[in-house]
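I need you to check the entry underneath: sequence plus fold tokens. Let me know what the token row says about the fold.

>
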Amino acid sequence: MDIAYRINAPVSADQFIDLLHRCSLGVRRPTEDSACMQGMVANSNLMVSAWDGDHLVGIARALTDFHYACYLSELAVDEHYQRRGIGKRLQALAQEQLGPRCHLIVIAAPAAADYYARLGGYEHNPRCWVLARERRIGDRQGTD
């Protein structure tokens, strides 16, 4: 297997959607909303991709300032290519693009939480908060 890794190579929304459906993230992303998916790809400022020939088999899609914080929004590897070190290599290559003080930040999908613990290097941080689009600052969940 000869996997080619590319930094910020063009990836179409259709290729991205197809990859997400070939791993566990497809059910956790709005893949039916092509405009949203196109925006996700177009507005990423760091994407490291893995290719088997012209077939996209993995991606690390991130938003970053390159100096302090890099939010790794997706780490996706085709299920048929998993357990070959591709995800680890995608993360390592993404980290290489960042400045010396930049943190790589990941919110793990439930199915992937143990992956990051086993990978090593990452520190678990339970202080993440997410504000869903339909919620507003000041809303109290579970109250009328």
Summary: The CA atoms of residues 13 and 39 lie 8 Å apart. The two ends are 56 Å apart (CA to CA).
